[in-house]
Design brief:
This protein is α/β, with parallel strands linked by helices. The protein has two domains: 10-208, 3-Layer(aba) Sandwich (Rossmann fold); 218-283, Orthogonal Bundle (Helicase, Ruva Protein, domain 3). It contains eleven helices and nine strands. Strand 5 (117-122), helix 5 and strand 6 form a beta-alpha-beta unit. Helix 2 (33-42) crosses helix 3 (60-67) and helix 8 packs across helix 11. The mean pLDDT is 96. The structure holds S-adenosylmethionine. S-adenosylmethionine (SAM) binds at residues 25-30, 54-57, 60-61, 76-79, 82, 103-105, 122-124, 127.
Length: 284
């Protein structure tokens, strides 16, 4: 297959730099540059944006993002073995790729980015979920990014976009849908990766909303949904008992049946409940 950018095929890059995949770093690489370009296109027009890429590995998605016209890519990779391979890409795209070595959970990259910022990543699932929650929960809103295009294992992707009363509905769906439009835009079988993981994967695209979908205090909403879903099979009058005295009355005042369970309550109703709790707390 002809390379999209005159650089060697990824299999060769991996061989040249001895990038044997490490399980503890969640390394399952995408080697098909047509596929990585397709994922890059899911992020929309990149020509006027800086892209923050987490976990570039040998650089398949990085090359896709650059070939699709990203103004500037800032790539954060934990594995020092991948840095020389990424520097070769930086040399082929002068001034358009900044490579940072470190743990994305610890590194502050803000100084390297100019807005608008789009985030793209194919990450191990635990790191990806942790970063997603952080990106959706900054102290102030709107956040520094305008969209997120992220690969997850299929089940996590379904938890992000899940509608109320569905199997995967829970706190992640509420958080994501409160602050963004979230859609699954691509599905990938295990064979798309080298080595192949055990599970299917999916790309989720999240576009931030300028203001959260319904008003609520983020910390109170978080507290309410944590309590409700920690005991998701219990009735809310029991799972939320410790939230405030007279919880049944508060639930009824917001139109929620005290006998309902967390998975039956939509985002709008959870926000109304969070507002009612905030109001009570400000009175007491
Ligand atoms: N993006 C490449 C691709 O699509 O082929 C690699 C994907 S691989 C699933 C995940 C990458 O994330 C690996 O290169 C791994 O070293 C890197 N990684 C894992 N944990 C990380 C962390 N905490 N911070 C930055 N990179 C990390």
């Amino acid at each position: 297959m002809a390379a999209i950018d005159g650089l060697p095929p990824l299999r060769e890059v991996i061989k040249n730099h001895d990038l044997v995949a490490k399980k503890q770093l969640g390394q399952n690489f995408l080697l098909d540059l047509n596929l990585t370009s397709k994922i890059a296109r899911c992020a929309g027009d990149l020509s006027g944006a800086d892209v923050l890429e987490i976990g570039p590995g040998p650089g398949g998605l990085t090359r896709g993002l650059l070939a699709e016209g990203a103004r500037h890519v800032v790539a954060v990779e934990k594995d020092p073995r991948a840095i020389p391979a990424l520097m070769e890409i930086a040399a082929a795209y002068p001034g358009r790729l900044t490579v940072l070595q470190g743990d994305a959970l610890e590194l502050d990259v803000s100084a390297h980015l100019k807005g608008p910022v789009k985030i793209a990543a194919n990450l191990p699932y635990n790191v990806g979920t942790e970063l997603l929650v952080r990106w959706l929960s900054p102290e102030t809103w709107p956040p520094f990014w305008s969209s997120l295009t992220l690969m997850f294992q299929r089940e996590v992707a379904e938890r992000i976009v899940a509608p109320v009363r569905s199997e995967h509905y829970g706190r992640l769906a509420l958080l994501a849908q409160w602050r963004s439009d979230a859609r699954i835009v691509m599905s990938l079988p295990p064979e798309a990766f080298t080595p192949a993981p055990k599970v299917h994967s999916a790309v989720v695209h999240l576009t931030r909303l300028e203001t959260p979908r319904y008003p609520a205090d983020a910390r109170v909403l978080n507290r309410v949904t944590a309590m409700a879903f920690n005991q998701r099979r219990k009735m809310l009058r029991s799972s939320l008992k410790a939230l405030t005295p007279g919880i049944e009355e508060v639930l009824e005042s917001t139109g929620i049946a005290p006998t309902a369970r967390a998975e039956e309550i939509g985002l709008e109703a959870f926000c109304a409940l969070a507002r009612a709790i905030s109001e009570r707390e400000s009175r007491s």
